Amino acid sequence: MEVKSLCKQFNMNYETIAYWYNGYKSENGVQIFNPRSVNMAIKKRKCRSYWLNTGNLNEVLEYLEIDPVGVRDDIIRMVNYEEVEISQIEDFRAGGELPQTKEEIYSLMITLGFLTYFNELLSIPNKELMQEFEKALKDKCFGKTIELFKQSKEMLQATLLRDTDTMAKILHNIHNQEITLYDYNHENGLSSVVSLAYLSARDKYIIKKEEHTGKGRADFIFHPISTREIPIIIELKRNKGTQTAINQIIDLEYAVSLFERYRRNILIVGIDYTEGKDHTCQVMELEYKS
Which CATH number fits domain 143-286: 1.20.58, 3.90.550, 3.30.450, 3.40.1350? Predict the structure, then answer.
């Protein structure tokens, strides 16, 4: 309630503040804000990273360069807004010997405030920390991670230009690179690959998965942070074709609430993966009528 009151008092958007600085979890699962960053954002009237512990993050990332216990793939999952299941976190105190096991590395990252842990699930708590991880991963020479960020920038640009051939090619490449992480035999494989493909889009959009809109739930809705960007709705299909995805967006009126909220045209995207034929994409622009 205190953060809501501050936002109201200083005319700041609470949802934006929560997106940037909320997400740490207490032992009973209650979400906690980063109080210093909230105060800095309100004082400066701008949401951005006010994180001060960058040196320790770089130190932690040095363990990932060696990656003796497979932590790096978990970090890629968490940067992709996924939770990683860890049944037991071992107590590890910063300042002692170097962490050796996966559990010790995670314990250190929790202690330093980079990750949050509740109900055996590990995650990056908020946009502020997500941005720090993304920046650090770009700066460090993690070969495939650097390529992933590069391709994700190209993916958003291709979508805005309706270059569906390039979109399909990028999805194909990312799936092949991350096939150990995201096998399409698993239910959420395609969704996770698409999410990775739009990793860099988070600089311009707040991306919501499975958001209720119209008469159903859209797989992805990209809410623009700036009025310069066009809202985007993405629907995914397997073995049904992109037109089926586009028809679902239109027939279930996914765009209606976005028209009301943003009062401008909306880009809708259908993505299909058909076994033996690979990915196909279709992009349309729906016109806003006042």
Answer: 3.40.1350
